[in-house]
Amino acid sequence: MRQIGKKSLVLISALMLVLLAACGGNSSQSSGEGDKGGTINAKIGVISYLTGPGAAYGEAITNGFKLAQKEINEKGKVNIELVIEDSAGKQEQALSASQKLMSDDEIVALLGPTLSTEMNVVGPEADLNGIPIMGTSTTAEGIPQIGEYVFRNSIPEALAIPVAMEKAVKKYDVKKVALIYGNDDVFTKSGFDTMKEEVEKMDLEVVTTQTFQKGQSDYNAQLTKIKGLNPDLILASALYNEGAVIMDQARKMGITVPFVGGNGFNSPEVINIAGKAADGLFVATPWFSEKEDPKVQEFIKKYETEYGKKPDQFAAQAYDALYIMAEGLKNAGEADRDALRDALAEIKDLEGILGSFSFDKDGDVEMDPIVLTIKDGKFQIFE
Amino acid sequence: MLLEQLINGITLGSIYAIIALGFTLVFGVLGIINMAHGEIFMFGAFMGIIVTSTLKWPLWAAFLVAIAVTAILGYMLERFALRPLRGKQGVSHLAPLISTIGVSILLENISHHLFGAGNHPFRNSFAEINFQIGSITVYLVQIIIFVISIILMMALSYWLLRTKAGKALRATAENLETASILGVNTKKIIILTVIIASAMGGIAGILVGMAFNSVNPQMGLSMGLKGLAIIILGGMGNVKGAMAGGLILGLSETFVVAYGDSGYRDAIAFIIIIIILLVRPQGIFGQKSAAEGR
Amino acid sequence: MLGEFINPYYLQIGSFILINIILAISIYVTLSSGQLSLGSAGFMGIGAYTSALLTIHFDLPILVGIIAGSLVAGICGIIVGLPSLRLSGVYLAIATLGFGEVMRVFFVNWESVTKGAVGLSGIPHIGRELLNFFRDAGFDPSSIGMRNNQFTYLLVLILLLLINIFIIWFFVRQNKSRVGRAFAAIKMDEKAAEAMGINITYYKVLSFTQGAILAGFAGALFAHVLAYISPADFAYHRAIEILIFAVFGGSEVILGAIFGATFMTIMPEALRFISEYRYMIYGLVLIFMMAFRPQGIIDENIMQWLKKKLPSKRGRSHGSRNQKHM
């Protein structure tokens, strides 16, 4: 009996020791601070969703950062070091990660976290500690309003969806719409709120509002109901993963009306998953991969050679975000949190791959989205 | 529209039923809730994707590969997560619950790594075959899913009631030690049970892939939870109960969406089982003794 | 200065550990009377939402919100606990898991009050409120060389630590009392306990309700430490996580629950450097743990060994030292 107890105690203490060692192990790495030959050295913390169900988004985002980092450092004016932490999509972990990053005095700014729910927790903390934080994929209402240190470069649904809706409604002379959205996700829920508001503004008739939940793979029941009510247009606030499957099942059922989606519905993956069924989707987005801008095409080419797949808007937004940070650092002239915040707030008409970018007074995006539609299995600009 | 919703409900219900069969078989013999069953099902679905979309092999090969892979996973589950717990002193009924949860976390994260987090389409010409009856589109897959679930249920019942292996299995379920004394190779029977249950999960995985054209690493969890609810609904360890429970759940979920509020769809399963547990704890088809034995 | 020693990251993790310990104890208490409840996440959600809504909409002090949250969770505990008496083992586990899921769906759908999936933000934060209090009292953290976030999280940590000490003390005492012995008797053999004249209904509902109150309490603390909650915080994963705390550490003794919560909270943090694999390792640890030590890391044997060993060890080491001197 005693033997067992002893062994377990040894085991416990060994485990604890390993954990403690691991805890402290990778916390401090030195980096040269100060201006050497005019270059500004800066460490930027990244909080991203790298394990768990939404890991695909986090992966695209960090890839975008890394690509931009490489280019920026090659140019030489600013030398950025990224410290990447995982949040697993959970608020507590995002908060822990942010504390870890913030307590490193060399880190001048934070990028991320991926989800708006996480930003709601991390944002106030960063603001309190006076470190600029910029979301690259947080599109929910009210994020930049958290505080003056909180920014974002991802275009909010409230800006994107109305543009797409207006164009689609005009083109198809829509009177009746059906809504479908994921009600247990912040992103899709806030997209839906925008849609509902816009529907009321445009005086359209809502035949039904359907919801779905994460992890669901059968949307037939909701779609059958929608089909029976014959809407002219379906407004779907869904992330591309679910949205593509919804379109596929809808087309199989014989629903032919167009879909309008939110920002999160915009991804080449939609075509990949739904194939022909994706035709007739409208989205408004700043990101268009076929844009004849050499910058955009170069980004796509580099991204593809580096990571073996096409970049989506999350990667693009992340890529631009780091350029915005670099610009801020350049203008600030030093790697200092407060100076960087002030410099960021001043940024106007910065040309990125998403187009011309400015922050408004809250630190929110000012940008004109373009409306895309899928036709013949390809995203095209909708005029 | 009613007819269409009925078809939707039966399709969904049949899939639930096949998943629940796997749960109920393991529970019936071992008295264990296999929390990893949903993830094994998800692996089956991914095997279907890999075989048909990536390797471009025919559909029957997908079934074979999925069955083989999930059977191996089932064996490993038994070998590494269940067997070490058996016959050990002081092992509470919590231990297998936790270790199968461990397996489910492991499998979900492995599949994230292997297949990525996104949805994968299931491209197969077979899944496209459909009939037009009036305004209703019926897909051959939907009929096949229903037929397969019935066949599986009947085969399982027959196997359990009429064959020697089935008798040995029931004897093991009744009392492990007595069965062992009577000359039943209980170790083999237990392995067989877990393997068969897992293989059925694999079959269900491919069917889901074909029916809904959507496979992702998270699908295991929601399907697994539904499967849990169904075996309570139909009575633990009861094959016909699992089938009936699956259909009831599939239909009620569909009709909640059709005539109620789709937001409460996920709660239906649990509202039903809470009511069932309070009114008739042994489940609709369960026998009284089964519930008291726990 | 003092500020250099205090890393808010560790304070943060420390606070989560302490909240998780309360959650683990909530499972331990229900388990100590032989009931396996997976409803902790649901009760936690009830506590969190109650307290958050009260403090946001009615400007009540956080303390009142937290007490109200625990009480509402406790009342729900009685409501759920009474009919659940008929169930045991796995049936109870699944029914309570179901209760948790129903609560989550309810939080998602009751949009007018809970704001649905968007969640409640702007919940008063314990630390920041305390900081304001101290500032009003004319105390500035920088005067002792601490930054704002260091100070707030230090306060939160100390507060939680005090709460934890009280809760642990309470349950250690309870274990030695009539109530604790009744729980243990029911866990051993319900029928025998009944025959001995123990009021099974009362004690089982009592332990279930205690668990619910604790979970609700932890939920309310969680809401005021994170300052933001959404229904996804109280889903299946949370219920499983809480169960793992107790079972991994050892569900027989309270120390096991405490250890389990501590270890399982530190592990994912410590494994950050291999972030992609950490949840795989988490799964593997569970499997191996159950295979080699299914009763959890700390069980009665270790406790007894500790009790016997610690005083005697002290005695012996003194003895040997004396011998050397001689």
Write the layout of secondary structure elements.
The complex is a heterotrimer of chains A (383), B (294) and C (326).
Chain A: H1 2-25, E1 35-36, E2 39-48, H2 55-75, E3 78-86, H3 91-102, E4 107-111, H4 116-129, E5 133-135, E6 150-152, H5 157-172, E7 176-182, H6 186-202, E8 205-212, H7 220-229, E9 233-237, H8 240-253, E10 259-261, H9 268-274, E11 281-285, H10 294-307, H11 313-332, H12 337-345, E12 350-352, E13 355-359, E14 365-366, E15 370-375, E16 378-381
Helix pairs in contact in A: 2-11, 3-4, 5-6, 7-8, 8-9, 11-12
Chain B: H1 2-30, H2 37-54, H3 59-82, H4 94-115, E1 130-133, E2 136-139, H5 140-162, H6 164-174, H7 176-181, H8 186-212, H9 219-234, H10 239-259, H11 265-279, H12 288-292
Antiparallel strand pairs in B: 1-2
Helix pairs in contact in B: 1-5, 1-8, 1-9, 1-10, 2-3, 2-4, 2-8, 2-9, 3-8, 5-6, 5-8, 6-8, 9-10, 9-11, 10-11
Chain C: H1 2-5, H2 8-32, H3 40-58, H4 62-84, H5 89-109, H6 111-114, E1 120-121, H7 126-136, H8 148-176, H9 178-188, H10 190-195, H11 200-226, E2 228-229, H12 236-249, H13 254-270, H14 278-292, H15 300-325
Antiparallel strand pairs in C: 1-2
GO molecular function (chain C): branched-chain amino acid transmembrane transporter activity
Transmembrane segments (chain C): 12-31, 38-56, 62-82, 89-107, 151-172, 212-230, 242-267, 279-298
Subcellular location (chain C): Cell membrane
Count of DSSP helices of chain A?
Answer: 12
Radius of gyration of chain A: 23 Å
Structural class of chain C: mainly alpha
Runs of chain A with pLDDT <50, length 5+? Answer: 20-36
Q: Rg of chain C from C-alpha positions?
A: 21 Å
CATH class wording of the largest domain in chain A? Alpha Beta
Number of domains of chain A: 2
SSE string of chain C: HHHHHHEHHHHHEHHHH
User: Which chains share the greatest interface?
Assistant: A-C, 53 and 51 residues
Helicity range of chain C: over 70%
Main sheet of chain C, how many strands, which sense, barrel? 2 strands, antiparallel
What is the string of helix and strand elements of chain A? HEEHEHEHEEHEHEHEHEHEHHHEEEEE
* Shape estimate of chain A: globular
**E-strand count of chain C:** 2
The average pLDDT value of chain A, as a whole number, equals 84
Identify the CATH homologous superfamily of the largest domain in chain A. Answer: Response regulator
The portion of residues forming beta strands of chain A comes to: 15-25%
Structural class designation of chain A: alpha/beta
Shape of chain C: globular
Mean pLDDT across residues of chain C: 86
What would you say the CATH architecture of the largest domain in chain A is? Answer: 3-Layer(aba) Sandwich
